[in-house]
């Protein structure tokens, strides 16, 4: 299974696709948004993702909010103040792709927002968990013919099944993101092994992980569980107020995340072999048979001699010696020469 976003192949044995989620941590500042795009590129992320909000298409002004948002300002008011216009998104997309060299992505929070983004010829639609069950909008977005990456926070298996089947019926190229919509989450709620269940259950979708923890550990774990996309919120200044601050990492941490994921990918082979760089160590680290007492020419190596520890094993740096695991094969062999104590033994020492 594979999808493509711009020139990046995602899935199968391709590298994990890493998204730096800038969300609205730019607070409406184009300067800050561009700085985030540049910092995401420098950190090694494959894409930087923003959000396109049309508040009146998205929610009622007096929408009751859970406690994951600032108590002194509603989400509606916050977005009215800080959401970027589609003109600004066009400028930002051009900056990302033409000047920075990073994939621009954006989450639409309504069909109208998706329609505006489609006119910018974006390469994919990232759908947030709150819109995961909105099949009325999702099926219309699927008609744009772009890959869809959908987070599954707050959703049960029945709801995910329904969205998965509906969008496949629409012919969508699909990725599903394991996600917990807590800000930040309780670690016991994460249930990272759900990634494995999703991989078995949704075989026609790419499976990724969208993370809301304030650190990197669970993203590294997701990489070892074969998540093929990892999305992480980022922020320039962790002292900055805003709805996503508590689930965002710094760009220094994003750099560490990318480096860690790439090292994990390099380390995840499944071949048991002696590597070239181990060969030199083998010459001195393995143990070989050594005398503990002097031995005379013509002496027969008895079982008692071995069991009474008159022969031992040590590191000798002589790989042509008798390996430790072959000590018992010396029993009843006759020495051809005298051997001093603490001397390595060789097969050529015996008849």
Give a nutshell description of this structure.
With 351 residues, this protein is an alpha/beta fold.
Describe how the helices and strands are arranged.
Elements: E1 2-5, E2 8-11, E3 17-23, H1 30-43, E4 47-52, H2 55-58, H3 75-82, H4 86-100, E5 103-108, H5 111-118, E6 125-127, H6 135-142, E7 148-151, H7 157-169, E8 174-178, H8 194-201, E9 206-211, H9 217-224, E10 229-233, H10 251-267, H11 276-285, E11 287-291, H12 303-307, E12 311-315
Parallel strand pairs: 3-4, 3-10, 4-5, 6-7, 7-8, 8-9, 9-10
Antiparallel strand pairs: 1-2, 11-12
Helix pairs in contact: 1-4, 1-10, 9-10
Task: Walk me through what this model shows.
With 351 residues, this protein is of the alpha/beta class. It is 34% helix and 17% strand. It contains twelve helices and twelve strands. The protein has helices spanning 30-43, 55-58, 75-82, 86-100, 111-118, 135-142, 157-169, 194-201, 217-224, 251-267, 276-285, 303-307, and strands at 2-5, 8-11, 17-23, 47-52, 103-108, 125-127, 148-151, 174-178, 206-211, 229-233, 287-291, 311-315. An eight-stranded parallel beta sheet has the order 5-4-3-10-9-8-7-6. A two-stranded antiparallel sheet has the order 1-2. A two-stranded antiparallel sheet has the order 11-12. Helix 7 links the parallel strand 7 and strand 8 (174-178). Helix 9 (217-224) runs parallel beside helix 10. It is elongated and about 100 Å long. The model has no long low-confidence stretch (mean pLDDT 94).
């Amino acid at each position: 299974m594979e999808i493509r976003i711009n020139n990046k192949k995602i899935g199968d044995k391709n590298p994990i696709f890493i998204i730096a989620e800038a969300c609205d941590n730019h607070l409406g500042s184009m300067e800050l948004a561009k700085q985030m795009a540049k910092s995401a590129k420098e950190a090694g992320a494959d894409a930087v993702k923003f959000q396109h909000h049309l508040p009146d298409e998205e929610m009622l002004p007096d929408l009751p909010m859970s406690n994951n948002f600032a108590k002194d300002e509603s989400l509606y008011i916050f977005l009215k103040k800080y959401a970027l216009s589609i003109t600004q998104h066009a400028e930002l997309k051009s900056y990302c792709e033409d000047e920075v060299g990073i994939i621009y992505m954006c989450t639409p929070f309504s069909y109208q927002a998706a329609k505006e983004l489609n006119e910018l010829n974006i390469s994919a639609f990232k759908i947030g968990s709150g819109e995961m069950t909105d099949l009325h909008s999702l099926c219309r977005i699927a008609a744009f013919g772009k890959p869809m990456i959908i987070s599954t926070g707050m959703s049960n298996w029945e709801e995910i099944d329904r969205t998965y089947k509906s969008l496949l019926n629409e012919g969508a190229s699909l990725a599903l993101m394991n996600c917990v919509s807590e800000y930040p989450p309780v670690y016991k709620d994460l249930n990272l092994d759900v990634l494995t269940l999703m991989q078995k259950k949704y075989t026609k979708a790419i499976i990724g992980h969208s993370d809301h923890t304030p650190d990197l550990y669970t993203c590294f774990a997701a990489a070892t569980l074969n998540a093929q996309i990892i999305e992480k919120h980022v922020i320039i200044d962790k002292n900055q107020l805003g709805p996503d601050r508590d689930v965002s990492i710094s760009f220094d941490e994003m750099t560490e995340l990318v480096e860690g994921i790439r090292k994990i990918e390099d380390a995840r082979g499944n071949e048991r072999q002696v590597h070239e760089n181990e060969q030199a160590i083998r010459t001195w680290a393995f143990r070989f048979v050594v005398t503990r007492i002097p031995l005379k020419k013509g002496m027969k190596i008895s079982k008692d001699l071995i069991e009474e520890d008159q022969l031992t094993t040590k590191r000798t740096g002589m790989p042509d010696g008798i390996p430790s695991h072959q000590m018992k094969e010396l029993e009843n062999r006759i020495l051809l020469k005298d051997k001093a104590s603490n001397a390595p033994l060789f097969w050529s020492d015996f008849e």
